[in-house]
Design goal:
671 residues; alpha/beta; 4-stranded antiparallel β-sheet; 53% helix; binds adenosine-5'-triphosphate; ATP hydrolysis activity
Amino acid sequence: MRPGEGGGDTRRTAAGQAMVELQANASAAGGAMVVGLSPLSETLWRDSKALPGAGASALIGDVSARLTWKDLSVTVALGPGKTQTVLDELTGYAEPGSLTALMGPSGSGKSTLLDALAGRLAANAFQTGAVLLNGRKAKLSFGAAAYVTQDDNLIGTLTVRETIGYSALLRLPDKMPREDKRALVEGTIIEMGLQDCADTVIGNWHLRGVSGGEKRRVSIALELLMRPRLLFLDEPTSGLDSSSAFFVTQTLRGLARDGRTVIASIHQPSSEVFELFDMLFLLSGGKTVYFGQASQACEFFAQAGFPCPPLRNPSDHFLRCVNSDFDKVKATLKGSMKARKGTVLDSGGSQASFLMQAYTLTKRSFINMSRDFGYYWLRLLIYILVTVCIGTIYLDVGTKYTSILARGACAAFVFGFVTFMSIGGFPSFVEEMKVFQRERLNGHYGVAAFVISNTLSATPFLILICFLSGTICYFMVRLHPGFEHYIFFVLNLYASVTVVESLMMVIASVIPNFLMGIIIGAGIQGIFMLVSGYFRLPQDIPKPFWRYPMQYISFHYWALQGQCQNDLQGLVFDNQYPDQPKIPGDFILKYIFQINVERSKWIDLSVIFSMIFIYRILFFLMIKVNEDVMPWVRGHIARKRIQKKDSGPTFGKTPSLRGYVVDPELGPNES
Ligand SMILES: Nc1ncnc2c1ncn2[C@@H]1O[C@H](COP(=O)(O)OP(=O)(O)OP(=O)(O)O)[C@@H](O)[C@H]1O
């Protein structure tokens, strides 16, 4: 039995079994029914733009996707006046029910061709030529076509079933009954052969989960939920051992046999994997080397004088040989390009409402955090440990003369270093950010739902962490006695930790890279700490830049100002010498710590809460800017570069295929 399988969830197992039977019945009936769905869902299923055609039969016929591309060229802008032709006048097609392999040496343009066909080229890349869907020019978008990237961006703490289940809730229409969504999830699990690991977690750095091949299949399953008619996969077998690669490709072949059009870029498949492909598009230096039946490629190469030696893997052989018989391919294709005009594929993003998205994202994020040892449990432990250390060092700090500095240092450490530890949540934010980008819950609502869910899901954990560690610290150090002072201390701690989290999320939205994000986050916080008023007194901090505006945008400054007031105001301290009068806290605040006692500590706290709000808005805006504005800016810059290049000298032209001499044993050499 696999970990997590348990055997307790008999209902699910029964549902799975039912789906197998239903699928078998459906196949027996020629695939004429949409398996396991109620009449309402069946109608929704057929009517919905996002769910075009489920099951084998629905895909074949008027909703099938026939993709053709003609004289497709892609040029990328590399720098001022520098461009590169990555794809050079490629022509080809992909039929419904077929599995097409895009093959070629590294850098030959496989991923670029896949991106161009899927309509997701980088902003600095420009495409000419036509990509036709069922004989018409159409923008391929989410829902009509699915794209599985090389990276499996999944949440490591969720099981396979949960991962697919949440994705279904996030994207399928609210009107579809839950049981039908569940049936669809179970059907997809079966379709992708994931039954055995359905209750196993995906896995992450500290959690052993499903295998690499199973992860790939989960990524494909997530895209299949929307029943796309066209499926693009970028190197679906990369990083897999030969048996996993075979199984993944076999699954893709099964999906193609259900009437889908499946196109996958693949580097160097084994002969068994290669045999599973129907069509082969072989590229070299951005040009077509071979396009046709994969099974006839060996013969084609043999006729051209490059027979595949016995026992050699055909794909190895093809990659070594380069054939320039492009005209023949073009002629073969001429007829197929005149295919009758068919249905325009509808596009559509998530069909779930804003509330459903916000609710599902919050629940999923909450479950993820509660299972994520690093984000929550380890952090809780370290917070408690550190606050016990603080409590021991400043134990019963008292009101002696030396306690004045001790109280200030204690506050600076708690609101500087302890809140700084919130940076530990960054890997979790990056993971969620990447999953969000894969899910493409586009539009203002999708982004708003993501931002809200992030805030809501983290709140209970942060409250608990701050309540526990704040209470330990407050009572061990014996800070200013009184309920109001205790509550202020805990709230100030909560606000400070949350504001750091919010800042880190803004950083994650711009730089979704663990190491870089943590270094940048640590740097920003270090600077904020420096101007907090503890390391240099507030009025001594140089005015331009450091005081205005840096000090005022540093949340450490507001947290420390508030806490010092909370801790010292109303207390009386011993003087340096016993014969001198006692020193009131207000005097210390005003003349030693240079704190404005006229301003209420609650105002300081409100400023931090406002900062949390501002950071969340900034988080929303950054995602929108990244989604909507940045591609436009990059595209504009690249266009300018290409225009400059066109009027200047030529650089970086891809070498012509005709410039190659082919040695059947050694492969191509440039002459
Ligand atoms: N947006 C881009 N900007 C700059 N160069 C690009 C861009 N897209 C592709 N290229 C260049 O085009 C060439 C082909 O890249 P592509 O990723 O399509 O190749 P590939 O065949 O998929 O390679 P691999 O098998 O190594 O992934 C490479 O030299 C790459 O650097």
